Predict the structure of SEC14-like protein 1.
Amino acid sequence: LQAYERRFPTCPLIPMFVASDTVSEYKSEDGAIHVIERRCKLDIDAPRLLKKIAGVDYVYFVQKNSLNRRERTLHIEAYNETFSNRVIINEHCSYTVHPDNEDWTCFEQSASLDIKSFFGFESTVEKIAMKQYTSNIKKGKEIIEYYLKQLEEEGITFVPRWTPPVACKSESSISHPRRPVSPAINIPESATKEGLNNKEILNTSSSPSEPTAGTPDDKLDADYIKRYLGDLTPMQESCLIRLRQWLQETHKGKIPKDEHILRFLRARDFNIDKAREILCQSLTWRKQHQVDYILDTWNPPQVLQDYYAGGWHHHDKDGRPLYVLRLGQMDTKGLVRALGEEALLRYVLSINEEGLRRCEENTKVFGRPISSWTCLVDLEGLNMRHLWRPGVKALLRIIEVVEANYPETLGRLLILRAPRVFPVLWTLVSPFIDDNTRKKFLIYAGNDYQGPGGLLDYIDKEIIPDFLGGECMCEVPEGGLVPKSLYRTAEELENEDIKLWTETIYQSASVFKGAPHEVLIQIVDASSVITWDFDVCKGDIVFNIFHSKRAPQPPKKDSLGAHSITSPGGNNVQLIDKVWQLGRDYSMVESPLICKEGESVQGSHVTRWPGFYILQWKFHSMPACATTNLPRVDDVLASLQVSSHKCKVMYYTEVIGSEDFRGSMTSLESSHSGFSQLSAATTSSSQSHSSSMISR
């Protein structure tokens, strides 16, 4: 047993066993009983992509060791803390003395694995778990022998058996058992068997006489708590009262309701200082952007009402308001391009404000506290178009705002009909979602939601939406593609009255005949990934990527005067000096890509060398008739119009490390979907990898 204890806090023979912390510990006064509970940190040998999809680098297990020296037994129980709502792992080990030979130790081990759901990777997780478990069993004997040898080298070859102390108080007379410092006190089973008084232990954690439990003047009414707030311990009730009093004394403006204050306390495990910090930031944000009045003063644009495929739909079995989002049917790119991020964020905020209002209503209707809602997300139709990077970036920023200002409002998230592309989206989004929120996610692939443990466990049959096979008509808009005629330029989007974000994703540029627009990107580390997304708003252009070892001269902006054009958004920057020669001063790293008016182009380029990369949008001249040297009539007419020599693009670029790119985007190089098709000009070579996805 001494050899076994040496495995902690880390064990060099088990590389995946990174660390362990003692959660609670109990020792009987006579030394016969020793119960210790540890939280173990494991680095599971799993594919990197699977770890990113799961959103964790390490897995945590709780292990409870119960040593009884009187009976000469050691019982070990372990269970997983990470993903406990998706995967249930239980393990039991026991060391006992052989009944026929007291010098022999018997070892028994059993374990169970139950995988409910794991982002569509259930079989992979099962294989990994079995591999790790088999490996640990094989190493068990080797590890014990390693530490036994270590003891022998230290001169320890014999440990005397435990004997009861001569003057030993009975364990039932212990009035102040040893307790962990943590406020969450664990009472070991063996302690109750030895006669400890449970009431005594519980009362020491929060005595009514202690100031944290509150005085008669600052206690909340029991009926009020039960009706509107739910179960609260004396400590939690005290935290709520103290934070509310502090707000009343210091905060100028509207004081949030107790239910809302409680959400921030729960989000920070009732740490008053941390809860106060995020609550004050949120109240300042609400006041700055007039969020309290958003439902009364802001009307969603018609585009949102027609194409945003989401809406409220009755309630779940727990009485929570139910919000249905048909994300797979929604044109996220079209909505961002037609409305901008500001309007989209404002609409999401109005949904959350409506959710808070519905929670209050349902609390009155059902006669019990309802402080969160359930969200049902249907991913039928999700494809690579939804992985449009600026759209994903906008989504992440929306999640960031919602997480900061609406904590503990999501009671459950049901994700249905997750397609094969979903793990890629989940990889991008999950790191931005709070761990407590992530535990509320239930993901179903295909038609799994119709089976045991599916939708019927959470929603009454009578209100399951018709598009999921139910009988209830759901009035949520069906979404669909947003017409490109509704798209707006960056300049138009910048004229919004209220700014919830200070930056915009897109930039506009004008391209003229003889005056291309160029963007400089400096690459320090080779194998970085340059990504781009642009729309050709007017005219036809040629898109090029060049590389140069030396930096070009400071950019010069075209005056536009030479073209007799004045344009409010006519940004035009030229970097490549006219004296530079292609092949000597700079080189082309990708084949030119001709893009027609109205096309949307996405792509990526894995850089081979450090240096300076130039993205260029150049005017595409109409070729002359192939059978004659004479220009075509259309060409002549076009040349008479000055505006025909001007093109306009809206673009977005980003540089990311290749490791992150491959691990998250996996990438756009092989993107096919019903919305888009791969450009015929896409190239791929051993030197570089590039892709351009064109949406027509």
